[in-house]
Amino acid sequence: MHTFFRSARLTTTHLEFTVRAATALELDVYSGAALRGSFFNAIWTRFCVNKEAQTCAQCPLHTSCPVSALVAPLREESSWGQDIPRPYTILPPLDGARVYEPGERFSFGMTLMGDIVQLLPYILLSISPLEAEGLGHRLPQNGGQRGHFSVEQVEVYHPWSGQRAILYQSGDTFPNRPVASVTIQDCLQRAEQLDAERITLEFITPMRIIDREHLVKQPLLRPLLQRLLERYLALERHYGNPTLTLSKEERDILLQQAEATTCSANATHWQELTSYSNRQKRATPISGLQGRATFTGPLAPLLPFLTIGELIHVGKNAVKGNGHYRILTEH
Predict the structure, then answer these.
(1) Residues 21, 104: contact at Cβ < 8 Å?
(2) Least confident of 79-88, 123-132, 191-200, 288-297
(3) Cα–Cα distance for residue pair 270/272, rounded to 1 Å
(4) Residue 315 in contact with residue 304, Cβ under 8 Å?
(5) Between 62 and 204, whose confidence is greater?
(6) 62: number of CA atoms within 13 Å, CB side?
(7) d(Cα 298, Cα 219) in Å, to the nearest integer?
(8) Per-residue DSSP letters for 257-289?
């Protein structure tokens, strides 16, 4: 595994948007899908120069267009397009379903994967159309329109060290500040500090995993690790080191070690949720497992991957913010 991680290149860059409601604004329990849609529309509206194209793939600018790199997976209908992991995840507000009154602040996050951080200026320069786009439910007090907010600042932060730096403040004309990303070396250092025989995971947002054609409604480490390996290697392939692979034998050994662990404490529950897709014109399930689970067993070889999973999420709807977990450490 040491040789494997020496070749790993994927980084993650973590952004937090602090915003103030300009009108009444109502969000669901998990608003990741709504935020993803708003970002998509804002970036596409601001920068696409060929909106007549039905899809990005049909546009002659497709291969060199930075907007396509950010939003094409959302626009493509081909199986090839669907197989490309999105280069970001949304971290929705965790205040539950509620209405924000004018003047109230709330925050949400976005994690950028690998070299897609080069396109950060496009995201920050889309703030104006993002504010104009509107968000959440249509409300009578807004004349049947969605709520609006203004972005007060955007920070880049390190999820483990707590270090923060302001990238953007309201009124900035062109954000151009250095950005710090989390590296695989950071993940390895965190893994070395963890207990090699006992670990507690807190599932912050619903984790939806399908294993052998069945939903996993109990905390099991082998299905989690299997989906995590698939997601991580796909992200490396597209946004990190395209040649990085694990052999079938290496994967099987890791999964066998995960299978040998035991869930020694289970404080999870199944959260039933649906999300309406404007693209598919139907409601889709985003239910998943939430709460805390403690696993015991031979964890040492698995810990680097589990720390990576804290950053990239795991399972279905990760781009919308689902599958976000953290490793709880004793202080």
Answers:
(1) yes
(2) 79-88
(3) 6
(4) no
(5) 204
(6) 13
(7) 17
(8) HHHT-EEEEEEEEEE--EEEETTTTEEEE--EE
Which tokens hold the place of 226?
Answer: 């299997």
Domains along the chain with CATH numbers = 12-169 (3.30.70.1890), 184-328 (3.30.70.1900)
> Tens digits of per-residue pLDDT, 29-63?
889 989 998 998 999 899 989 988 887 778 888 77
H-run or E-run covering 126? none
Candidates 128, 134, 35; CA nearest to 90 is: 35
49-83 burial, b if ≥16 CB within 10 A, otherwise e? eeeebeebbebeebeebebbbbbbbbbbeeeeeee
Best CA proximity match to 135, nearest among 235, 42, 34, 227 = 34
Which pLDDT belongs to residue 216?
Answer: 95
- Phi and psi (nearest 5°) for 44? -65, -45
Cα Rg, the chain, nearest whole Å: 20
Kindly report the backbone phi and psi dihedral angles of residue 224, in degrees, each rounded to the nearest multiple of 5, phi listed first.
-60, -50
Instruction: Specify the residue for token string 């270090």.
Output: 163
Whole-number Cα distances in Å, 102 to 85, 105, 140, 272: 36, 9, 14, 30
Q: Which pTM value belongs to this model?
A: 0.92
Helix (H) or strand (E) holding 222: helix 221-239
Sequence-separated (6 or more) residues with CB below 8 Å from residue 131? 22, 148, 149, 150, 151
Which residues does residue 214 pair with via DSSP β-bridges, in sequence order?
A: 211
CA distance 110 to 319: 9
> Which residues lie closer than 8 Å to 205 by C-beta, 6 or more apart?
30, 32, 92, 94, 288, 290, 313, 321, 322, 323, 324
- Quick check: helix, strand or coil at residue 244? coil
